[in-house]
């Protein structure tokens, strides 16, 4: 059971908008620690998608955005494309587990 | 362009020690803003943070693995390594090495470069 909770799956039609939630607690997201998001395409290594809650690395399209409020964070993807189909993971820091990064369980995005 | 490459045995017997090395190219492992970490992913499952090391040798471990895990660094060879002792089938996973960027504090670090990963199977 992951410290950060994500829905196992989400889906949306091409061109639509989807959001993926990441729910934590007062020892991680709620404590003000940054949330980061990773995209893992099938058979590949994870790739940094969003860092510091809402920042995109160079090369990541602005269709991807992140937000954080209270003990939760969200990843939004607009203008869904077929090659967005992947697993998405949130990650933060947890102060109840000394020195430990924590991941969400991952969300499988299906583009219909 | 920074590259990380994992290497090591793909098959380890139960109760033995799993050993992997990550070779860093295209950048120095001794850079001050970076830590170097390991993340694993059991087949069909999610990511699990294992631990990280700074070039000075300071380590940070996932408490659930701390008693079995050792991460070390060899700055002269631009490599860092992982040893996981007393392995069981539950340790079967793809093991990724990654760079952890310090964006202004321990609570802000994120993984900006990843190795492709190497599958390690624990079986007799």
Q: TL;DR?
A:
Chain A is an all-beta fold and 112 residues long. Chain A has strands at residues 9-12, 18-23, 36-40, 47-50, 64-69, 72-77, 86-94, 100-103, 107-111.
Structure description:
- The complex is a heterodimer of chains A (112) and B (124).
- By secondary structure, chain A is mostly beta strands.
- Chain A is 0% helix and 44% strand.
- Chain A is built from no helices and nine strands.
- In chain A, strands 1, 3, 4, 7, 8 and 9 form a six-stranded mixed beta sheet that branches. Chain A has a three-stranded antiparallel beta sheet with strand order 2-6-5, with no helix packed on it.
- In chain A, strand 3 (36-40) and strand 4 form a beta hairpin.
- By secondary structure, chain B is an all-beta fold.
- Chain B has no helices and eleven strands.
- Chain B has strands at 3-7, 11-12, 18-25, 34-41, 48-53, 59-61, 69-74, 79-84, 93-101, 110-114, 118-122.
- In chain B, a hairpin with a 6-residue loop joins strand 4 and strand 5.
- Chain B is globular.
- Chain B starts with a strand and ends with a strand.
- The mean pLDDT of chain B is 96.
- The A-B interface holds A 2, 31-34, 36, 38, 44-48, 51-52, 57, 87, 89, 91, 93, 97-106 and B 37, 39, 46-49, 52, 60-63, 96, 100, 103, 106-112, 114-117.
Major sheet attributes of chain B: 7 strands, mixed
- Estimate the helix proportion of chain A, in percent: under 10%
| Cα-based radius of gyration of chain B, to the nearest Å | 14 Å
Please mark out the parts of chain B with pLDDT under 50 across 5 or more consecutive residues, or reply none. Answer: none
Content-based structural category of chain B: mainly beta
- Topology of chain B as a string of helices (H) and strands (E): EEEEEEEEEEE
The structural class of chain A is mainly beta
């Amino acid at each position: 059971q992951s410290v950060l909770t994500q829905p196992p799956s989400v889906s949306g039609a091409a061109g639509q908008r989807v959001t993926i939630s990441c729910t934590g607690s007062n020892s991680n997201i709620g404590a003000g620690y940054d949330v980061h998001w990773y995209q893992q395409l099938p058979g590949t290594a994870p790739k940094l998608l969003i860092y510091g809650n809402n920042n995109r690395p160079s090369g990541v399209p602005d269709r991807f955005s992140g937000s954080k409020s209270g003990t939760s964070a969200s990843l939004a993807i607009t203008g869904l494309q077929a090659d967005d189909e992947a697993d998405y993971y949130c990650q933060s820091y947890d102060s109840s587990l000394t020195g430990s990064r924590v991941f969400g369980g991952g969300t499988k995005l299906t583009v219909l | 362009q920074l590259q990380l490459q994992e290497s090591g045995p793909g098959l380890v017997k139960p109760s033995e020690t799993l050993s992997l090395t990550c070779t860093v190219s295209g950048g120095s492992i001794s850079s001050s803003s970076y830590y170097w970490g390991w993340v694993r992913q059991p087949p069909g499952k999610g990511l699990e943070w294992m631990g990280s090391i700074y070039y000075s040798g300071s380590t940070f471990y996932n408490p659930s693995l701390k008693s079995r895990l050792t991460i070390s660094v060899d700055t002269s060879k631009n490599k860092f390594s992982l040893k996981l002792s007393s392995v069981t089938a539950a340790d079967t996973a793809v093991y990724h090495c990654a760079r952890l960027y310090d964006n202004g504090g321990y609570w802000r670090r994120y993984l900006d470069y990843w190795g492709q990963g190497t599958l390690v199977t624990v079986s007799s």
